[in-house]
Design brief:
- Strand 13 and strand 14 form a beta hairpin.
- The protein is built from ten helices and 20 strands.
- Helix 1 runs parallel beside helix 5.
- It is of the alpha/beta class.
- The model has no long low-confidence stretch (mean pLDDT 94).
- It binds flavin-adenine dinucleotide.
C-alpha cells in the first residue's frame, strides 16, 4: 500500500441516490465526506443509458415499494413529480396473476404465524414495524417519478452540485484496514490509500477484504449479480395495458415494464418502449438473436404487445451489482466496532425509511 495523507471524516461507497443522500446528511454534520464509485458515472442502479437515440432511458425494470415516509421524503428532497403506476403492478405465478403487493401478505402471514407459534409476541410487535410487513387486500398505489429514473438521476446530479460533494469515479475500494485507530482503505488508483473515521457501505457494495482491529481478516464472498435487460422500441398498441409485471413463471423473463410514459415526447406516434429483465442463466445460454425472437414471441403471447407489432429497435444492457449475505453484513458491522456502517439497500424506498431518523433533518 502506498501511503497518502488524504483523510476524510466519512468515506461512502457508491453514488446511488441513497449514497448521495447519505453524503448530504454527513455533510450537514460538518463532516468532510468523499463518495467513491468504481463506475464512470454517478447514480448506481438509477443511472440511465442511451437507447436508439433516446438520451436517458432507465437501465431496467424498477419499482418503488410502497412506503409513505420514504416516498414523501424523496419527493421533497429531490423535488420529484410522482404519479401512480397505472394499472398497478402485478405478479404472475403458475399462470395466476395477483396484485404485486399481495406478495407481502404471504411473507407477512408467514412471519406472524412463525412468531405466534413460538409465543414471541414482543418480537412480533417489533417486527411488524418493518415496512416489509404489510397486510392489504386492495392494490396499493405504487408511485414512481413521471420521468422515470432520468428524473431522479438528474436531481441526484443537482444535489451533488448544490452541496459541492466530493466524488471520485472510476475508483474501486479494494481493502479495508481497521487495525489502527481509524479506517484505512486501499483504492484501485492514486491516491490509493485514504484514511477516515468512518466508512459507509451499502448492501450492494463489493467488499473484497477487511482486516479487523483484533487482527482477524474477512473476505465475505461478495458475488457479482448481473442485472440484464432488453429494451424494445416497438410500433403497435399494447392490447392489455400494464405498468410492471413480475413473472415467477418464466425461465427467460423475470420482469417487464412499460416505460412509454417516461419518454413519450421522444417516441414516434404509435411507438412504445418496453424493458424486459432477463434471467442471467438464459441470457448466457442463448444467442442474442434467439433471445430477442423468443422474448418478442412471449410478449405477444402474454398480450403485452400486439400480434402484428413491429420491432423498430432493440438493445441489451448488463448492469453489474454485488451481493453479500445479510448475516455477513451484520457481522462486519459488529466486528468493526462502529467504524463501518452498512446501509441496507436491497429495496429502494425501505433503504430511505431505515434512515428516517437521520434524513428527516434534511427536509
Ligand atoms: C439493477 C438494479 C435494479 C434494482 N431495482 C430496484 C427496484 O426496482 N426497486 C427497488 O426498490 N430496488 C431496486 N434495486 C435495489 C437497489 O439496491 C436500490 O434501489 C439502490 O440503488 C441501492 O443503492 P446502493 O448504493 O446500495 O447500490 P447501487 O445503486 O448498485 O450503487 C452502488 C454503486 O457503488 C459501486 N460500487 C460497489 N462496490 C464498490 C467498490 N468496492 N468500490 C467502488 N464502487 C463500488 C457500484 O458499481 C455502483 O455504482 C435494484 C438494484 C439494482 C442493482
Amino acid at each position: 500500500m502506498q501511503s497518502d495523507n488524504a483523510s476524510y471524516d466519512t468515506l461512502i461507497i457508491g453514488t446511488s441516490p441513497l449514497a448521495i443522500t447519505e453524503a448530504v446528511y454527513q455533510k450537514s454534520l460538518k463532516r468532510a465526506v468523499l463518495n467513491i464509485d468504481n463506475r464512470g458515472i454517478i447514480g448506481g442502479a438509477w443511472t440511465t443509458i442511451k437507447h436508439q437515440g433516446i438520451p436517458e432511458v432507465e437501465i431496467g425494470c424498477h419499482i418503488w415499494e410502497v412506503q409513505k415516509w420514504a416516498t414523501d421524503f424523496l419527493t421533497a428532497f429531490y423535488n420529484l413529480q410522482l404519479a401512480p403506476l397505472d394499472p398497478p403492478p402485478r405478479l404472475f405465478k403458475k399462470g395466476v396473476s395477483i396484485p404485486y403487493d399481495w406478495k407481502m401478505n404471504l411473507s407477512t402471514s408467514k412471519y406472524i404465524a412463525s412468531k405466534c407459534s413460538r409465543l414471541k409476541f414482543k418480537e412480533l410487535k417489533a417486527g411488524m414495524k418493518s415496512p416489509a410487513r404489510r397486510l392489504t387486500l386492495l392494490p396499493s398505489k405504487y408511485l414512481y417519478p413521471r420521468g422515470g429514473a432520468k428524473e431522479l438521476y438528474l436531481r441526484v446530479l443537482d444535489k451533488v452540485k448544490e452541496n459541492d460533494l466530493n466524488v471520485r469515479l472510476n475508483t474501486s475500494l479494494e481493502t479495508i484496514d481497521l487495525t489502527g485507530s481509524d479506517c484505512k482503505v486501499e483504492l484501485s488508483n492514486e491516491p490509493n490509500v485514504l484514511n477516515s473515521d468512518r466508512l459507509i457501505l451499502t448492501s450492494l457494495s463489493d467488499i473484497k477484504k477487511i482486516m479487523f482491529e483484533d487482527g482477524t481478516e474477512m473476505s465475505p464472498d461478495t458475488k457479482q449479480v448481473d442485472y440484464i435487460h432488453l429494451h424494445l422500441l416497438v410500433t403497435g398498441s399494447i392490447p392489455r395495458k400494464f405498468s410492471y409485471h413480475r413473472l415467477m413463471d418464466d425461465d427467460t423473463i423475470h420482469r417487464v415494464s412499460d416505460m412509454t410514459f417516461q419518454v413519450r415526447e421522444e417516441l414516434n406516434d404509435g411507438q412504445v418502449l418496453i424493458s424486459v429483465g432477463i434471467h442471467a442463466k438464459t441470457y448466457h445460454a442463448k444467442s442474442q438473436k434467439d433471445l430477442l425472437d423468443s422474448i418478442f414471441d412471449k410478449l405477444k403471447k402474454r398480450k403485452l404487445i400486439n400480434k402484428d407489432a413491429k420491432l423498430d429497435a432493440h438493445g441489451f444492457n448488463v448492469f453489474p451489482s454485488y451481493y453479500t449475505r445479510p448475516d455477513l453484513l451484520s457481522k462486519i458491522e459488529e466486528l468493526s466496532k462502529g467504524k463501518i456502517t452498512i446501509l441496507r439497500s436491497t429495496s429502494f424506498t425501505f433503504s430511505f425509511h431505515n434512515r428516517k431518523k437521520q434524513y428527516q433533518t434534511l427536509v
